[in-house]
Amino acid sequence: MTLKDRNILLGVSGGIAAYKVAQLARDLTKEGAKVDVVMTEAATRFVTPLTFQALTHRKVYTDLWQEWTEEEKGHVTLAHRAELAVIAPATADIIARLAQGLANDILTTSILGCTAPLIIVPAMESNMYQHPATQQNLATLRERGAFILEPGVGMLASGASGVGRMPEPEEILGYIRLALGKNSGDLIGKRLIITAGGTQEPLDPVRYLGNRSSGQMGYALAQAALERGADVTLISGPVNLKPPVGCKFVSVKTAREMEAAVQRALFEDELPADVLVMAAAVADFRPVTSSDHKIKKDKTAPTIELTLNPDILGGLKDAPGLEKLLRVGFAAETDDLHANAEKKLNNKNLDMIVANEAVSSIGHSDNQVTLIERGGIITEFERKPKRAVAELILDKVVELLAKKTA
User: Fold this and answer.
1) Is residue 348 a known part of a binding site?
2) Distances in Å between the alpha carbon of 232 and those of 35, 38, 225, 236, 289?
3) Which residue among the candidates 7, 127, 183, 211 is catalytic per the annotation?
4) Which pLDDT tens digit goes with each residue over 337-384?
5) Does the annotation count 211 as an active-site position?
6) Where do the annotations place CTP binding (predicted)?
């Protein structure tokens, strides 16, 4: 699910953090969203309406009393058109007015008439944020169903440091994606466990056996699943990527740590899993012993004895209680791609395996995959960015879940 053609009502109130919201408006527009910016009079003192108009290529609304037309009926049209409303920054004043149900400007009237999900992003001085009145108003809005994106701690407009700093646009964008998915995605009510990245098997405190996996495929799957409304547990080896906003994140290093994390996610979490996607490049071998001290360079190279790591998916093949679990594996091969992938599919009792050529996929931002289902159904795709590949994989997951349910 993308943001293309999604209607977002972006309310901007009068705080210094309004300048950051220009970046948010730009990012939303860049991803294809239709952004209706609604500004309070105080907000226009910080950023001009022209700035938002130039970034969104759409009309900016500042006046409750502007004339209605057949196509544009002021706050009524804005409220009905919105699939999601976001107020950033949300000052103590706008929070108080929303909590009281006041409708005395274009922003409050639009929000009062809007039935879409609402995200409120408070930003203000620490004492204002922590004041009992502000906290009570936020509690009231939360009880009515609004999602409150808590402010961070950092440098404020006064020069002091404290709570009240607005989150960065990237984080707000993550919650927008999450809220839209929870409202209309095709994986609402489903829980996915996704593994990502490579594992590291220590030789000594500074060296390890590993692979070139960047984690991009697994993280793209997690982000795409969240945007489709799923509850996502992401179990990741060491990578240089930020976990997607809204996922339950578990960091691991070794194959055995990943196996334990997958077991906990499957058998100890209160919410049962519907899908397990093993996108991680788990090391097949590990050293029999790991030195507590750095192995010193000598005239001869040390002999390293290896042993097999656990087969995480294979170990779940006959596990009781997982009869309804949809299992998706990955096969990165250097030769005989289809034959080796199908062998893994059958040996590990998978519903589907994603086959890709190892050298051209691991560490790259794009991928060419073949989806092989149980029963020999094969679907090949052209090379695409990994985010697009993630959508194709989840399309098939949705289809397979429907068949399992039927």
Assistant:
1) yes
2) 28, 33, 7, 12, 35
3) 211
4) 888 899 999 999 999 999 988 666 777 788 889 999 998 889 999 999
5) yes
6) 284, 294, 310-313, 330, 344, 348
